[in-house]
Amino acid sequence: MFADELKTLRRLGFRHVLLQVLNFVSVLSSGLMIWKALGLITNTESPIVVVLSGSMEPAFYRGDLLFLTNPSNQRYQTGDITVYKVPGADIPIVHRVLETHDIVSDRRGVVAAAPLAQQQLLLTKGDNNHIDDIELYQGLEWLERKHIVGKVRGFLPYVGYVTIAMNDFPQLKYALLGGLGLLALIQRE
């Protein structure tokens, strides 16, 4: 079967194969542009994330797909479900805000009576965890706004299991990408 496809590619010629490759690159670049546009609209580096653990059960289960926003003009409230990433950690964490504290300081960082700049500090905890997340902060006492990836605005249950399967079994990811690439090359339209 592969030999037949190879003969078909030779018969179509270099120009047709090049056109198919360019179409495939066009599809990939369109997907990247859509991802970046979503990031700009939602003000977050990652507008869509997948829940990887059971720490937020029963609110969210492993494999749920979450949609995030990070409005710069809104403060986080106790009870908000956030996704955060601390320095040195590879994977963002989805947990609920347990406490918030506002620090008022002037431009030099000195606590001031008149608010010139206000910084919000957050403490989070997974719904299914017994203790707060201080141990996960890797030396930080509180989360700052710069650590927050976004606030959960919606979700699709179990849709993210495809992502989990591809991370757990890298061969599946390479087979899927290879199959899509081959399909793009041999497709005649």
Ends distance: 20 Å
CATH class of the largest domain: Mainly Beta
Structural class: alpha+beta
**SS element count, helices:** 4
Widest sheet, order of strands:
1-2-6-3-4-5
**Which whole number gives the mean pLDDT?**
85
Q: What string, H for helix and E for strand, traces the elements in order?
A: HHEEEEEEHH
InterPro entries: LexA/Signal_pep-like_sf, Pept_S26A_signal_pept_1_Ser-AS, Peptidase_S26, Peptidase_S26B
GO molecular function: serine-type endopeptidase activity; signal peptidase activity
EC number: 3.4.21.89
Protein name: Signal peptidase complex catalytic subunit SEC11
Structure description:
By secondary structure, this protein is an alpha+beta fold. Strands 1-2-6-3-4-5 form a six-stranded antiparallel sheet. The protein is 34% helix and 23% strand. The chain has helices spanning 2-12, 14-42, 161-168, 170-186; strands at residues 48-50, 65-69, 81-84, 93-105, 117-125, 148-156. The model has no long low-confidence stretch (mean pLDDT 85). It contains four helices and six strands; from the N terminus they run H-H-E-E-E-E-E-E-H-H. Helix 2 (14-42) packs across helix 4 (170-186) and helix 3 (161-168) crosses helix 4. A hairpin with an 8-residue loop joins strand 3 and strand 4. It has two domains: 1-42; 48-162, Ribbon (Umud Fragment, subunit A), CATH 2.10.109. Its EC number is 3.4.21.89. Belongs to the peptidase S26B family. It catalyses: Cleavage of hydrophobic, N-terminal signal or leader sequences from secreted and periplasmic proteins. It comes from Dichomitus squalens (strain LYAD-421) (Western red white-rot fungus). Keywords: Endoplasmic reticulum, Hydrolase, Membrane, Protease, Signal-anchor, Transmembrane, Transmembrane helix.
